[in-house]
């Protein structure tokens, strides 16, 4: 008999979130407030342009305003920060998303830092990161928050479980490790210098792949019965996980697409609506 | 034949640090600058009073000014922040240390946040924490920095090693996990909800105990040849590690006292001197 598998359906989680958001947006509109997200795209990277467009479309469908700021690839750090400050000062803008990565000569960290904490709906500032690591952030980074959201939606226990996170970026591996830790998981964070990665991943009751390499996580790295969350998205619609191979051992798994991606966008909308609610009082 | 053991002598590491600091302090004094650390003690907890006194004495011995601010245990958050702001605004104060913990009714986080980032020599602000987690802090928390300092002084490799940290406090477990991760260790962070803690600790090439429980880490939890760092200090001069038992399996170990403690204080002095150097230019 084949063991039953649980496919963690990101579209379902996102739809559930958006249903709740629709009510919040209605209540705001009664007060004359329309939540508004500003997205900033610097340069002409096609993937980044796609992501920004998807975020704008998702806002539109839900009745959230979105303002798009497109800047040329030769924008200076100073000019980018000036653009961010304009959005910081605009009372009609509730959330600001600077699409990562920005072109290389720009000091991305300085640009992130320029975002006002109460508009930092993607948790990219140092202050937002640390508030999240300490467990009191209003807006944790969207992808990490989406991962926790999926696990919680499916009532997957986190407390006391061993979570193995592969990746340590400031907007994904590090904050998701912090959030799992705050949910009382024992957390191991791995990366390119990790020795015997397969053995470490095999310890995981929950495995989060945030590597940025297609089909990187192999099926036999997964402990039988583990939960696999694939936060990767690579060319050709591949995640960071070898889905079919990992599904064999996993109890539950997020597909790519329709896994973490849609919940990340729904989380961004949720944070924007919450920022508008705070602004409105 | 008994395997050779390495006792990681904190007094030796601290002495080495202070020797370098003496030169820096001399050069500052030629410019008419005396580094100055302000310590704030709220209430009358005897251990906290001892720590503050030790820090003040260590300053004195090295020719660093120290200003002690003693506040009664019924101090309000507002009054404490006002005291901190006074120190923030005083150009003669280069570093500010608020002794943890403050009495319960005070919002300690709000008080920590009030410390100017360029005077946050113990890395207690959210901004300081995140800068450290992202690898560009001027002043990481002193105990975590001391732990890294000891490992580096004794040329203990960190990259690619599995570090197991027991504890997840904002000023010890979390930042030391972050620093070990940035030094390319694979890092597992454990805590009171960790299942099978002994088995997890047994994975560690480097084990950091930051639990606050005397002799908590047992000898048979230590993988033969591991490095054991005891960041605990409990009544009766006990660390968080059962020293004699752990020494049997460990290759290297920090004693208590004369392990992490003196290096923590030396690190605080170092950060204060560095803050004075930055102020002086």
UniProtKB/TrEMBL annotation, chains A, B:
EC number, as in UniProt: 1.5.1.5, 3.5.4.9
Q: Which UniProt keywords apply?
A: Amino-acid biosynthesis, Histidine biosynthesis, Hydrolase, Methionine biosynthesis, Multifunctional enzyme, NADP, One-carbon metabolism, Oxidoreductase, Purine biosynthesis
Which of this chain's residues are annotated to bind NADP(+)?
Answer: 167-169
Q: Which residues form the Tetrahydrofolate dehydrogenase/cyclohydrolase catalytic domain?
A: 8-122
Q: Which family does it belong to?
A: Belongs to the tetrahydrofolate dehydrogenase/cyclohydrolase family.
Gene Ontology CC annotations of this record = cytosol
Quaternary structure annotation from Swiss-Prot or TrEMBL: Homodimer.
Protein name, UniProt field: Bifunctional protein FolD
Q: Which gene encodes it?
A: folD
**This protein's pathway:** One-carbon metabolism; tetrahydrofolate interconversion
Q: Which segments constitute the Tetrahydrofolate dehydrogenase/cyclohydrolase NAD(P)-binding domain?
A: 141-278
Q: What does this protein do?
A: Catalyzes the oxidation of 5,10-methylenetetrahydrofolate to 5,10-methenyltetrahydrofolate and then the hydrolysis of 5,10-methenyltetrahydrofolate to 10-formyltetrahydrofolate.
Query: GO biological process: what's one of them?
Result: L-histidine biosynthetic process
Q: Which InterPro entries match?
A: Aminoacid_DH-like_N_sf, NAD(P)-bd_dom_sf, THF_DH/CycHdrlase, THF_DH/CycHdrlase_cat_dom, THF_DH/CycHdrlase_NAD-bd_dom
Which species? Paenibacillus prosopidis
Q: Which reaction does it catalyse?
A: (6R)-5,10-methenyltetrahydrofolate + H2O = (6R)-10-formyltetrahydrofolate + H(+); (6R)-5,10-methylene-5,6,7,8-tetrahydrofolate + NADP(+) = (6R)-5,10-methenyltetrahydrofolate + NADPH
Output one GO MF annotation: methenyltetrahydrofolate cyclohydrolase activity
Task: Tell me which Pfam families the record gives.
Answer: THF_DHG_CYH (PF00763), THF_DHG_CYH_C (PF02882)
Q: What is the lineage of its organism?
A: Bacteria, Bacillati, Bacillota, Bacilli, Bacillales
């Amino acid at each position: 008999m084949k063991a039953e598998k649980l496919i963690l359906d990101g579209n379902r989680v996102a739809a559930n979130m958006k249903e709740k958001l629709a009510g919040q947006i209605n209540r705001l509109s009664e007060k004359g407030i329309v939540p508004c997200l500003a997205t900033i795209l610097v340069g002409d990277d096609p993937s980044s342009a796609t992501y920004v467009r998807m975020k704008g479309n998702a806002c539109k469908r839900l009745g959230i305003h979105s303002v798009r700021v497109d800047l040329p690839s030769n924008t200076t750090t100073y000019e980018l920060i000036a653009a961010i400050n304009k959005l910081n000062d605009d009372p009609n803008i509730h959330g600001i998303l600077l699409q990562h990565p920005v072109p290389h000569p720009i000091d991305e960290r300085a640009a992130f830092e320029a975002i006002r904490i109460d508009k930092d709906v993607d948790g990219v500032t140092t202050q937002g990161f640390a508030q999240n690591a300490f467990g009191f952030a209003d807006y944790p980074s969207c992808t990490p928050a989406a991962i926790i959201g999926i696990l919680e939606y499916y009532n997957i226990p986190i407390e006391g479980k061993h979570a193995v996170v592969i990746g340590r970026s400031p907007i994904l591996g590090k904050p998701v490790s912090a959030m799992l830790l705050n949910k009382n998981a024992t957390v191991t964070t791995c990366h390119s210098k990790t020795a015997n990665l397969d053995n470490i991943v095999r310890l995981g009751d929950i495995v989060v792949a945030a590597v940025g390499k297609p089909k990187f996580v192999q099926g036999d790295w997964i402990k039988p019965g583990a939960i696999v969350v694939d936060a990767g998205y690579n060319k050709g619609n591949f995640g960071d996980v070898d889905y079919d191979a990992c599904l064999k051992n996993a109890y539950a798994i997020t597909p790519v697409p329709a896994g973490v991606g849609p919940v990340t966008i729904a989380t961004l909308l949720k944070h924007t609506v919450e920022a508008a609610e705070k602004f409105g009082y």
